[in-house]
Each structure stands twice: as structure tokens, then as C-alpha cells.
Amino acid sequence: MATDSTSALVRSVEPDGPAQAGPSARGPRARTTTAYLRYVAGKLVGAAVSLLAVLVTSFFLFRLIPGDPVKYMTGGRQVSAEQLAAYRREFGLDLPMWQQFTEYCGKALTGDLGTSYQFRAPVIDKITEALPNTVLLTGTAFVLYTALGIFLGTRSAWRSGKLGDRLNTGFALTLYSVPSFWLGLLLIIVFSVGMGPIPGLFPTGGMESGGETGFAYVLDVAHHLVLPVITLVAVEYGQTLLVTRSALLDEMGSDYLTTARAKGLRDDLVRRRHAVPNAMLPTVTLIFVNLGRVVAGTILVETVFSWPGLGGLFYQALSVPDLPLVQGLFFVFAAAVIVMNTLADLIYPLLDPRVGR
Prior knowledge:
Layout: H1 2-13, H2 16-61, H3 69-73, H4 81-90, H5 97-108, H6 123-158, H7 163-176, H8 180-194, H9 214-251, H10 255-262, H11 267-278, H12 281-296, H13 299-304, H14 310-318, H15 323-351
């Protein structure tokens, strides 16, 4: 009787055992994957909605700019009403606002951003032409001020309250509050024009002197690049420093750092291997936002130094106003920031598994 009862009990348990073990082993992983996919889908949908909002905003916002682009295209000449009407028909300015809007959205969704009034060329061609110059300037500055900000930010946080920390933080706050155009003009006066014993060492503006080829051309462009890059680095590195310092200070009192020190690890190793990686989420966000701004460029700095990039092109288009060019540039600038923000959101769960669950 006892043997039969035991056998029956074993038979009743055996079929259910593996069936219960399988889902319990796979369940958490499946739930994590589903949660991450839902998180990714939500971020992508949010990015798409933001892009559509930017598309609509870019059309109506710049219609508020005073000025008649048709009169600009005439170059100040006396023209008849028939000629002005012909210009308006050529660029679709005679159509009702709703029809202009629907045509603009329809073309933009296919990659056609219209035709520039002043250049009589496709907007996308003008953007493609100026984009490499902007990426060269702002990309070089981005690498330098990001590396400088993270390095000084981690050292300031690790030596919080000491003289070096106070000097770094104070200097960063001072430069961060300085208008970039003012600093650029000051550098031109001192190092391009020359002041007192300081001779003019750098060009006052532009990207090249002209007539150079090969390696001499590279050196010439690098020579023109020095002052605008210094301006951007000086103004922007403070933000990265302050964000990195603040995030790292929040980690300083954590128990795992105390444990790491108790195990005999040097402070340098504790900082690099444990504290800094766990404090990087806010800095990663800032890095991706700044990476999006690499495409947008900096309108004021490019204008001050006559740099032939997207920022200078945007300023030039605003002065007309060249509506298709302004709208196209605004959309590209905003789209770059939105895309980079979305990438940062998608990378978060890789840095911190708690995000997206």
C-alpha cells in the first residue's frame, strides 16, 4: 500500500515538474524583452510625433517674420505689379495658406524641402553643401569640450570643496555665462587684429585663404579653425563639467564605493571603475544632445567668424527671409536633436538595466 501510494504520488508530480520549471526560468527574461520592446516602441512613436510637430511649426513660425521675399528677389529694382505677381506664382506664394501648407508637408515627407528664393537651388542641395563645414567646426569642438568637461568634472567631484574644485567650477561657470559672439569678437580683436604686444596670429574669418592645395590646404583650414573652436570649447565645456561633477557627487556616498575602498583599491581605480560608469547617465544625455547640435551648428559663432556652414546659412536666409531655406534648416536642426535624444533613450537600458522595465 505504501509503495503504491508513493508511486502514484511520483506519477502525479513528474508531469507537472518540468512544465512549471520551464516558464519560471524563461518568464523574467521574456518579460524583460517585452518591456524593452514596449519602451523602444514608445520612444520611436514619440520621436515621430515630435518630427511632425516640428514640420508644422517650421511652416507657420517663419511666416511671422516681417519682410517680403519677393521684393528681395527683385534686388530693389522698380518692377511692375505683373512682375511681382509672376514671382509669387513661380514660388507658390499666391496660393492660399492651407494649400501652401499641404504642398510643403507632402514634399517634405518625400525629402523635398523646396527651392531657395535667393539661390534658386534646391534647399537640400544647399544644406548638403554647407553640412561638412559645420560638422568640421562643431564636431572638432564637440570632441574637445566633451573630453575636457568629463575629465575636469570627475576630478572636481573627487576633490569636492578643495581649491582646485572651486577654481575649476568658478572658471567653468564664468565662461559658460559668456555670450559666444562676444567671446568670438574678443578673440578676433586680440589674436587676429592684434593688441599691444600681441600680433595678429590668426585670420579674422572664413574657412580658407584660397589658392592652397594638398597638405598646405589642410594647414590653412586648421589655421582658420583655431579661434572658432576655442570659442566653442570655452563656452560649452563648463556645462559638461558641471553635469558630470553633480552626477558623480551623488554617487560619492554610495555603499559600494566604501566597500571598494575597504578592499584596498586605490582611489583612482575606485573612481574610474566604479563611480564614473554609474554616474554617466546624465552625461550621456548631454553628450547626445550636444551631438545633435553638431549638425545644427552655432549660428552666432559661424556668423562672427564668417564660417560657411549651416549656422551662417541660416542667418543669411533669415535676413531675406528665404522661407524654404529657413524652414528646411530649422527642420534639419530640430530633427538632428530629436534623433540623438531618441538614441540616448534607447541606450539607457544598456547602461542601467532598471531603465525601460
